[in-house]
Amino acid sequence: MEDRFLGKQVDYPQQYAPETLVAVPRHFNREQYQLEESNLPFIGYDTWHAYELSFLTNKGLPVTGLLKIVYPATNYSIVESKSLKLYLNSFNMHRFGNTANEGLSEVLKTINKDLNQLLDTDVQLGFFKHCNNSVSYDFSDFQVLEDIIDADKIDFTHFNETPELLKPSDQAGELKIASHLLRSNCKITNQPDWGSCFIYIKGASVPDTTQLLQYLVSIRNENHFHEEICEMIYKRLWDIFTPDELAVSCIYTRRGGIDICPVRVSHKHLIPQYLTTPSVLSEKLLRQ
């Protein structure tokens, strides 16, 4: 079902079409990384920003804005991204409500109902008509790897995920680091997906920053969905360094009017507050 629409030419529905939504079970990818559904080493959320939600009022007035979708990483399935794009576009020429606010209330209730039913979980929504001048940001104190080390002197020779690049160390402490060099490919279409990765790790053994950057670069030719890339990085760090605390957030560039931002953490207090709060529009990165 995950390739029902991906990589195929599809006519966009002209009226509300919940039947376009496709759920993809998470366990298909988790099995290869020995992630057991009943004993996951993380909690977290998947946050989606849909930049093209629009509908008409009963009088034909267009209403447009940004839809923020947040749901837990512990439910059974994800929503396939192109199916969500088709679904949201099915609202474009459909009429809801006599006023913009009345129509928006109907649309959000409809989307919430459909996604809750599809994913069998508690989906939370936020809608934004305007940019907030005082936006919030979760990652201001993270150091960017390619800025704090001399990346020009490093040999990068692996471009398929190579966990062997990560070696346990005797260095204890904590790291709050990021890289804007994350790239992977869509599992179905092989189209490139660009993003940023934010990692917090604390324990008796933390990664060497050069090795960590080499590892993140090695993901460049991996074919996975965004949520799967985040869980893969998390599981590698969890297995190799056995940290006391770990958090991995991947902020992907929008494609098809949607960006996907998965978060996986070992403890609840590590969850990025603003990114995972539906009512808050957090600061965008350069490539979002």
Sum up the overall morphology in one term: elongated
Strand tally is 10
- What is the third-level CATH name, the topology of the largest domain? GTP Cyclohydrolase I, domain 2
The number of domains is 2
Count of separate DSSP helical elements? 6
Oligomer class: single chain
CATH architecture of the largest domain: 2-Layer Sandwich
Q: Pairing-aware structural class of the strands and helices?
A: alpha+beta
Low-confidence stretches: none
As a percent range, the share of strand residues is: 25-35%
| Mean of pLDDT | 93
Question: What distance separates the N and C termini?
Answer: 28 Å
* Strand order across the largest sheet: 5-3-2-10-9-8-7-6
If you compute it from the alpha carbons, what radius of gyration comes out, rounded to the nearest whole angstrom? Answer: 20 Å
Please write the string of helix (H) and strand (E) elements: EHEEEHHEEHEEHHEE
Largest sheet: 8 strands, mixed
Query: In the CATH hierarchy, what is the class of the largest domain?
Result: Alpha Beta
- Helix proportion: 10-25%
User: Can you identify the CATH superfamily of the largest domain?
Assistant: GTP cyclohydrolase I, C-terminal domain/NADPH-dependent 7-cyano-7-deazaguanine reductase, N-terminal domain
List the helices and strands and how they pair.
Layout: E1 23-25, H1 27-30, E2 43-56, E3 62-72, E4 77-79, H2 81-89, H3 100-119, E5 124-128, E6 143-144, H4 145-148, E7 173-185, E8 192-203, H5 209-217, H6 226-241, E9 245-252, E10 258-265
Parallel strand pairs: 6-7
Antiparallel strand pairs: 1-4, 2-3, 2-10, 3-5, 7-8, 8-9, 9-10
